Amino acid sequence: MFEELEKVREKCLKCTKCDLHKTRNNIVFGDGVVGSKIMLIGEAPGFNEDMQGVPFVGRAGKLLDDILGSVGLSRKENVYICNTVKCRPPENRNPEQVEKNACREYLDKQIEILKPKIILICGAVALNSMMGLNGGITKVRGKWFDGPNGSKMMPIFHPSYLLRNPSHKEGSPKWLMWQDIKEVRRYFDSL
Ligand code: SF4
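# iron/sulfur cluster complex -> structure
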């Protein structure tokens, strides 16, 4: 599994299929445990990710690690993390459809090789790519949907959104995230 994934990563490192290659510093391919039951798919690399070549670093990444850690999950032990698009869009804009289409083969290969049982769809860009839905996460977050290879997919809030909405009150985005990650843990334990 690792060798297969490494071949895809090596192809990705040289990729010039869309214009995002012109401005990237690093490809951000994925991070975490190869063979994890959980794959989290985010949007596209931001500044810190592009500089380090690792997804979900900086404040949003720290919050994501805290959220996973709150139910005993981590990218060191049981989660693999990647993005919809592997190169940073300039000024952190959302990736365009043509860019998402160009990059899709790498995401599809990651899913095909890793065969996660749980796919967490993190943010609106990933929601659109994986489920073809437009709009925000709010209406679909916390629900299970059928995913590829018999997996279950759950849309969840992006940690950047949670950073902008710091309230912990019942019904707030952070509170909802807490309910969702507990459900993820419950299902993970049932596998
Ligand atoms: Fe290739 Fe994806 Fe980077 Fe575009 S974003 S250059 S398709 S790796």
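# post-check
Residues 12, 15-18, 20-21, 27, 85-87, 99, 102-103 surround iron/sulfur cluster (CB under 6 Å).
The helical segments are 2-13, 47-52, 58-69, 97-114, 124-131, 159-164, 173-190.
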